[in-house]
């Protein structure tokens, strides 16, 4: 049987032309050890087997092994074979063959990348910190019923259907699309049939697909201000002209008579991200009328719709009328876990086949076994039960965090759009506060909050100072400790506090 080491040596022996064959075999083996191809305590193939792979005599391999052993690179153990030494020779420690590379400067990176790539890098905001206090939007992934979900996946994996092991050009697993259509009609009042659903790998892919398929370069797109940076970056790199639209307590404020109508309108109507306001019925109807009048498409990101902790849940914008100019998008990242990478779109009937074909051409849909398992998980009622449990847990944690704010900071620090929903809330700061500096100081002490000011675009909208505090993945005892650190960071930045117990 061919080994990876044999393949490696055959390639490098062709490049090594100097010296005798035994010397060349020795040098290639030594280099493999020094470069980490053969890690310490790795067992080497038997000399006879390696000789057969390299098409050389066994004595050639034995001579190379003997020289490696004499120089301390390998050790032979009677009855156990030949192994790479745990500690390399002193000569290697003094002179390493591992190359070093100087870090590229900002100017070098800018000149190397395309204009689009450099722009994306400049606006990149994805955080390496995705867990703990107070990461916004991070669900408590430890509470998901992994055993139940894995039981379904394991059963399906034992004898998988061929259709779940090949590329998909049907918009995703039919069972999952059917289960989602049933769920969305009941839970979100979405008007849809199974064929209208396209499975994606999340919100980013959905926005990318829509902007590529429905827009040309420099088309206008309205986006909430402040708004989700991830959507803005995708729209920007696809060459669209982003028009930030202000947000108030009723959601996005559209222009009455736009001089240049938007091709796309990106909104988070159920729970505006990041401020938390709800798009009023009057604004929803105004957006629908405007979109129909100007031939625009509304992208409805139903962010955090599952986690409303009081009052009646708001129905989807898409469900207000039949066949509206709305592309409804959602994801399982918050309700199950982000690494699942499964989202979905509900598209108007006249867009189903074009978007399905373009999606298959661009992304080659996959994860069909996982999609199939998720379909059963939903159909058997586990998904709805999980959401109910998490709604209670998150409501409790949100209430606890608000009590901490009232007790140790004061009522004025709770943002006025702070509706009883979502996985984060906004800590309002005085206008003079530098939320970027405060968040950096908190991060240096192990507390992750995000500055509200960095979610704003343009120069016309007044920028509010604040901090996004996620509470979903933080237990109460950890929340109290982290909040005390954040409070100290506010004090050190000259923020006057008005606690209730003062």
Descriptive account of the structure:
This protein has 502 residues and is of the alpha/beta class. It has three domains: 4-92, Arc Repressor Mutant, subunit A (Orthogonal Bundle); 144-381, Aspartate Aminotransferase, domain 2, CATH 3.40.640; 385-493, Aspartate Aminotransferase, domain 1 (Alpha-Beta Complex), CATH 3.90.1150. It is built from 17 helices and 13 strands. It has helices spanning 4-15, 21-34, 47-54, 58-70, 90-94, 106-112, 115-123, 146-158, 174-187, 203-214, 229-237, 281-294, 352-363, 368-379, 382-408, 435-444, 476-492; strands at residues 74-77, 81-84, 197-200, 220-225, 241-248, 251-252, 264-267, 297-301, 326-331, 343-346, 424-428, 450-451, 466-470. Strands 3-10-9-8-7-4-5-6 form an eight-stranded mixed sheet, sandwiched between helices. It has a three-stranded antiparallel sheet with strand order 11-13-12, covered by helices on one side. Strand 1 and strand 2 form a beta hairpin. Helix 9 packs parallel to helix 14.
Quick take:
One of its GO terms (molecular function) is pyridoxal phosphate binding. With 502 residues, the protein is an alpha/beta fold. It has helices at residues 4-15, 21-34, 47-54, 58-70, 90-94, 106-112, 115-123, 146-158, 174-187, 203-214, 229-237, 281-294, 352-363, 368-379, 382-408, 435-444, 476-492, and strands spanning 74-77, 81-84, 197-200, 220-225, 241-248, 251-252, 264-267, 297-301, 326-331, 343-346, 424-428, 450-451, 466-470.
């Amino acid at each position: 049987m061919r080994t990876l080491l044999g393949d490696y040596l055959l390639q490098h022996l062709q490049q090594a032309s100097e010296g005798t064959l035994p010397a060349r075999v020795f040098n290639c083996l030594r280099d493999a050890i020094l470069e980490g191809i053969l890690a310490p305590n790795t067992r080497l193939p038997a000399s006879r087997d390696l000789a057969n792979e390299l098409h050389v005599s066994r004595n050639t391999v034995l001579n190379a092994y003997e020289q490696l052993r004499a120089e301390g690179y390998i050790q032979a153990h009677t009855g156990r074979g030949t192994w790479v030494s745990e500690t390399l020779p002193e000569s290697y420690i003094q002179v390493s063959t591992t190359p070093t590379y100087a870090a590229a400067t900002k100017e070098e990176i800018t000149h190397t990348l395309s204009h689009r790539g450099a722009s994306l890098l400049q606006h990149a905001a994805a955080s390496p910190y995705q867990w703990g206090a107070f990461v916004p939007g991070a669900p408590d992934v430890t509470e998901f019923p992994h055993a139940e979900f894995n039981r379904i996946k394991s059963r399906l994996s034992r004898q998988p259907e061929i259709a779940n092991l090949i590329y998909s050009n049907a918009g995703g697993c039919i069972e999952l699309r059917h289960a989602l259509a049933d769920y969305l009609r009941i839970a979100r009042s979405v008007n849809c049939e199974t064929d209208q659903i396209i499975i994606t790998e999340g919100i980013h892919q959905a926005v990318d697909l829509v902007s590529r398929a429905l827009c040309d370069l420099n088309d206008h797109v309205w986006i909430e201000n402040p708004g989700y940076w991830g959507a803005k970056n995708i729209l920007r790199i696809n060459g669209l002209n982003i028009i930030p639209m202000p947000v108030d307590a009723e959601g996005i404020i559209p222009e009455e008579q736009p001089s240049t109508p938007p091709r796309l309108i990106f909104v988070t109507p159920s729970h505006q991200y990041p401020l938390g306001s709800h798009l009023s019925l009057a604004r929803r109807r105004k957006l629908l009328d405007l979109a129909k009048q100007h031939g625009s498409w509304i992208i409805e990101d139903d962010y955090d719709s599952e986690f409303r902790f009081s009052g009646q849940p708001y129905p989807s914008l898409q469900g207000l009328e039949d066949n509206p100019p709305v592309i409804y998008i959602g994801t399982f990242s918050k309700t199950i876990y982000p690494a699942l990478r499964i989202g979905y779109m509900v598209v108007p009937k006249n867009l189903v086949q074009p978007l399905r074909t373009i999606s298959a051409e661009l992304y080659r849909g996959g994860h069909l076994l996982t999609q199939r398992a998720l379909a059963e998980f939903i159909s058997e009622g586990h998904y709805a039960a999980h959401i109910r449990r998490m709604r209670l847990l998150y409501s409790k944690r949100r209430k606890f965090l608000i009590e901490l704010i009232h007790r140790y900071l004061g009522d004025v620090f709770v943002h006025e759009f702070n509706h009883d929903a979502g996985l984060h809330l906004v800590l309002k700061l005085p206008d003079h506060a530098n939320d970027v500096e405060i968040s950096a100081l908190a991060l240096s002490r192990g507390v992750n909050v995000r500055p509200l000011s960095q979610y704003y675009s343009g120069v016309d909208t007044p920028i509010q100072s604040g901090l996004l505090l996620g509470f979903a993945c933080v237990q109460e005892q950890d929340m109290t400790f982290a909040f005390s650190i954040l409070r100290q960071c506010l004090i050190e930045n000259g923020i006057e506090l008005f606690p209730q117990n003062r």
